Automatic annotation (TrEMBL):
Signal sequence range: none
UniProt superkingdom: Eukaryota
UniProt xrefs under Pfam families: EF-hand_8 (PF13833)
The encoding gene: LOC130706683
Residues covered by the EF-hand domain: 18-53, 91-126
SUPFAM superfamilies: EF-hand
PROSITE patterns per record: EF_HAND_2
Protein name, UniProt field: EF-hand calcium-binding domain-containing protein 11-like isoform X15
SMART domains assigned to the protein according to its UniProt record, in alphabetical order: EFh
Amino acid sequence: MFFSQAGARPRMWEASPSEYKKWVEVFKACDEENKGCLSRENFKVAVVMLFGYKPSKIEADAVMSSVDPNTSGILLKEFLDIVRKKKEAQLYRNEIRHIFTAFDRHYRGYLTLEDFKKAFKQVAPKLSERIILEVFSMDVLRVGTRHAFASPQCLP
């Protein structure tokens, strides 16, 4: 989609006090030995509890490689930062999905060039058709003949 080309990024988001409290409770529940940090396996359990999925090996490796080697795991502060970033990314993907769905009037799961033109006429009526065609063409070269919904990280 064109969002990834434009460099759109998730906005900073702050957790509500109750959500923050939940994150801390999950951290404490997963810190089985009360060491004040989460091991790799405990981190995976915490992600399952908060987000409903088990992190991949790649995701767990990335998180663990960012941990201070002088500690024996992920400290609470680091954990809260990781969870906040994951929540921001989740909200961003949901926002993109919502926008895409608004323009997918026929509920096909993709946008044709005509759908794309109609969408741009609604949100940017003064944008030239040439630019709309260029944006559509750039992304079509990357993902095929239609614009299907996929989060920007999934696109080649």
